[in-house]
Amino acid sequence: MPPATARFEDDKFAAYGLPNGTFRSLGLETCTSNLAPKPCSSGSLPLVVFSGALATSRTLYQSMLQSVAAAGYLVVSVDHPYDADIVELPNGTTVTGVDINDSELEDALTTRVKDIAFLYRQLTKPSLRTKLFPMHHHSGGLLKTAIFGHSFGGAAAAAATQQLSFVRGGLNVDGTMFGSVLESGLDRPFMLIGHDNKTQETDSSWKTVWPQLKAWKREIEVKGAAHYSFSDLPLITSVIGLQEKLPVEIEQVLGSIEGRRMMDLTVTYVTAFLNMVLRYGSEKDFVRADNEFTEVVVVT
């Protein structure tokens, strides 16, 4: 995490029992472009846009998104200013979040979709793409794109798939849905991933939207998972040897699945969906995933 973000998140998560300085002490191992002898691809890698939970920094998903990128995607995660708890700009300026109440969620959702549309327009400029992805050869043209999001980001993924013609499919990870998608649905592939006991039976927005999903669709439930299981937090608590020692209230937020396995599960299902939508149109990766992860219940 950039420095101000790390300080902010350290203070925030100290309340949950993470040792002070956790985020300042953690880094990701990454490949830098100056080490690569040749560009990684001659074709155009598909684009995946990620939108996180309300009041949550995109940096809380970095490891997960790194693994998704490693499956052969250009991944761009979005911080929505005033919506994320903190946004740190390259010049060090920070924008802290505001409390968004229930009556403001529709406006916040509209703003997120506009952010994603703006981002895509920027990424269609070759000069910017070259700057962001210097080791990737671009064969021009618009990028094949899918979108996924966690929590409120899952609602944004649904809204963006509905409203933005360039999105080929969307994946909602554990997010209640809002807005016009509930009435008019989607004609592109869409998937729902829920934590333990988050299904159409317990989330009325999922039940409402399901019959309106007119293309390929799938819903899974992950037994033992909680809402923030679908972030880097379980992995972080596992890596620093804390997962077994956290208070029981934290399990209600992070779930009971071991952190490395939970990360593997999330990445496996996300990439299975992306591979189907953006690569080869078959469900073969889901068959393998369902066999490997006994925690997963295919709801429908």
Automatic annotation (TrEMBL):
InterPro entries reported for this sequence: AB_hydrolase_fold
Keywords of the record: Hydrolase, Lipid degradation, Lipid metabolism
Organism: Paraconiothyrium brasiliense
UniProt-listed Enzyme Commission number(s): 3.1.1.47
Class of enzymatic activity (EC top level): hydrolase
PANTHER family assigned: PAF ACETYLHYDROLASE FAMILY PROTEIN (PTHR10272:SF14), PLATELET-ACTIVATING FACTOR ACETYLHYDROLASE (PTHR10272)
Name the UniProt record assigns to this protein: 1-alkyl-2-acetylglycerophosphocholine esterase
SUPFAM superfamilies per record: alpha/beta-Hydrolases
Repeat is among the record's keywords: no
Keyword Iron: no
